[in-house]
Amino acid sequence: MKRHLISAADLTRDDALLVLDTAEELAQVADRSIKKLPTLRGRTVVNLFFEDSTRTRISFEAAAKRLSADVINFSVKGSSVSKGESLKDTALTLEAMGADGVVIRHSASGAPHRLANWVRGSVINAGDGTHEHPTQALLDAFTMRRRLGDLAGRKVTIVGDVLHSRVARSNVLLLHTLGADVTLVAPPTLLPVAVDTWPCSVSYDLDAVLPKSDVVMMLRVQRERMNAAYFPTVREYSRRYGLDADRVARLADHAIVMHPGPMNRGVEIAAEVADSPRSTIVEQVANGVSARMAVLYLLLGGSEPAIGKEVSH
């Protein structure tokens, strides 16, 4: 039976720990002179990107290739989709190619779930609308664990444009599963309506939360999704919710600073903070390959998938 990774909520605590432990083992391979493993030889992974994302696409491509899978990159610009072909027709094309795994990024929330009903392969959500981005949460948790050890009881603060952030939602769900305490910090206008149903707490005061935080994750201000209604000016936003050297000085010595990228330096994070030893931003990119290798390996590597959720047809 095929299983999929569409939401961070698809992972039990045991699933999540299995991914992180597997990623740790696979990270050792990255340090070898020959970085390839034969695990997915003969399997086909299709990268189906309806939205631009250089880092996520390259990360999945590197992960699949290091596991010796055949990789087909299906870029939507210039494809039949831009001529009006539907997601379902695209799915039937993928079926004809015999895709074992489909990595999909789509601007519509819920597209990966629909795709999972139409293909026989395992579907991995690489970001759907403002909904979720589960492998980003996994690589973030992997990065936190490498720096801080066990995440149970750790205090993680996620700051900024939560409303438009699929990364925030996936991180809240996964970190809760792993036993961390998550606090969202944002102006009220940048919080989702249903945030009170999420397993986290909310604060509007960054300075009050910082001294208690083990991890501070800054989210990109998504100006392309914004109009002036969300906050008065970028400068005012930065003054209240940006992470600069003065604010970093309030953190505990062991605390780390994260950012899923791409960054607006000088808006949500100061350049000197992004480039400081506390920052894990460069590590997150490298760890992304290990985490995605682990997901591909556990979904496609054995005779049965080891993680994920079945989608009822």
UniProtKB/TrEMBL annotation:
Binding of L-aspartate, residues: K83, R166, R220
Alphabetical UniProt keywords: Pyrimidine biosynthesis, Transferase
Residues that bind carbamoyl phosphate: R55, T56, R105, H133, Q136, G261, P262
Pathway connected to this protein: Pyrimidine metabolism; UMP biosynthesis via de novo pathway; (S)-dihydroorotate from bicarbonate: step 2/3
One annotated GO molecular function: amino acid binding
SUPFAM superfamilies: Aspartate/ornithine carbamoyltransferase (SSF53671)
Catalytic activity: carbamoyl phosphate + L-aspartate = N-carbamoyl-L-aspartate + phosphate + H(+)
InterPro entries, per database record: Asp/Orn_carbamoyltranf_P-bd, Asp/Orn_carbamoylTrfase, Asp/Orn_carbamoylTrfase_sf, Asp_carbamoyltransf, Asp_carbamoyltransf_Asp/Orn-bd
Family: Belongs to the aspartate/ornithine carbamoyltransferase superfamily. ATCase family.
Cross-referenced PANTHER family: ASPARTATE CARBAMOYLTRANSFERASE, ORNITHINE CARBAMOYLTRANSFERASE, MITOCHONDRIAL
UniProt xrefs under HAMAP family: Asp_carb_tr (MF_00001)
Physiological role: Catalyzes the condensation of carbamoyl phosphate and aspartate to form carbamoyl aspartate and inorganic phosphate, the committed step in the de novo pyrimidine nucleotide biosynthesis pathway.
Protein name per UniProt: Aspartate carbamoyltransferase
Annotated organism of origin: Thermomonospora echinospora
Gene: pyrB
